[in-house]
């Protein structure tokens, strides 16, 4: 019995998710330049033809992942700019980040792949394409820090420097999880938040 259009849509979505998860793992393991569509197909347990039916090239697949990253950064910036107590907004942002790193959907590998793209500008133009979304997140976080300092929730200090230190700490946690795998437990969110609260328990 032939599949219905709805069943075909479900199958396409599941295949696309498998391709994205496999691509992130392969790009994280080998880097963009050394990775191949054949490796991604093997990682996903799919035929090479299935991969090419969804993405015309390795470059196009990577661009798709970059677009996802940009969308995620902008969405995070919008949440940070939302209504609510600054500490609660940062707690939600940080908890989501740490949960993604600990999850089974390649969160820490995805973070590594995006960092590699920015630092090496590979493929060419990757850093520029992500820069606007990153600036949006950075600006929203710094503004939230200022608001939290004004309300007394966060310690005083330069908001831009505080933002830089906080983002560097999250980046370090992500790198540690990638290098050490499941043997490295992410710190409790309250410990991470102490950088903003001046060492006080949030």
Automatic annotation (TrEMBL):
Domain HTH tetR-type: start-end pairs: 13-73
Residue ranges of DNA binding: 36-55
Organism: Brachybacterium phenoliresistens
PROSITE patterns per UniProt: HTH_TETR_2 (PS50977)
Keywords assigned by UniProt, alphabetized: DNA-binding, Transcription, Transcription regulation
Protein name: TetR family transcriptional regulator
Gene3D superfamilies: Homeodomain-like, Tetracycline Repressor, domain 2
Top-level taxon of origin: Bacteria
Short name of any one Pfam family annotated for the protein: TetR_N
GO molecular function: DNA-binding transcription factor activity; transcription cis-regulatory region binding
